Amino acid sequence: MDMHNVTINFPKNIVLENGESIHIERDKITDESLFSMLFPEKSTDRIAINLIKNGFHDATPSFFKGEKYSMAKEIAFPWELHIRLFNYGKQYGKMFAHVEISRKYFEHLFIIQPSVFEPFEFYKSIYREFNVMYEPSGKKVKEFKNYYKVKLIPPENLIEWMPLVLNLYSNFSQYKEKIREIIDVIDFELHRK
């Protein structure tokens, strides 16, 4: 399969609901906790169902962060969009999203780019408002002034983790049998009268 580059727009200058202007420094564009998308909590299940209808699947394996749903979809090989939906019990839910290498590969752990705009394409038919919170201030973004263009380039090689893990397990099982044989011989020698 041919690997593709993906370009993500990430907020550079924003205006908050209180009129405050914020500049996001370039070194912060990989911070997953800067922005969340807000939606009515009652829409969480409907958004998840809509994501499934749009080709998303359970994002397994992934690290649990307290989300109600964790879903992923390949957007261009080897990249996938990973969306986490949270309920906070305050009449709203939050969505955090990022683009990363597919979880089929070890490189999945190392290349992650937070995403603000891409998820909206997949939930706007359920909830049409694009509400984004700038998490450090706890205030909604009123306006996006301009963006960083972040070009994600896949690594030259990808290592599938499943075949490697199965191979390691197989090799470990062989060594486990040999160790068991050695222990049995030692046990026999120690208990021989």
For the record, the count of structural domains works out to 2
The chain-level mean pLDDT equals 87
Terminus-to-terminus distance: 65 Å
Roughly what fraction of the amino acids lie in strands? 35-45%
Q: What is the CA-atom radius of gyration, in angstroms?
A: 23 Å
Number of strands: 10
Helical/strand content category: alpha+beta
Shape: elongated
In short:
The protein is of the alpha+beta class.
Descriptive notes:
The protein has about 190 residues and is of the alpha+beta class. The chain has two domains: about 5-150, no CATH class; about 160-193. The protein is built from three helices and ten strands; from the N terminus they run βββαβββββαββα. Strands 1, 2, 3, 4, 5, 6, 7, 8, 9 and 10 form a ten-stranded antiparallel sheet that branches. The radius of gyration is 23 Å and the shape is elongated.
Q: How are the secondary structure elements laid out?
A:
Blueprint: E1 6-16, E2 21-23, E3 35-40, H1 44-53, E4 57-58, E5 69-76, E6 79-87, E7 92-101, E8 112-114, H2 120-123, E9 131-134, E10 139-152, H3 161-191
Keywords:
ten-stranded antiparallel beta sheet, elongated, 193 residues
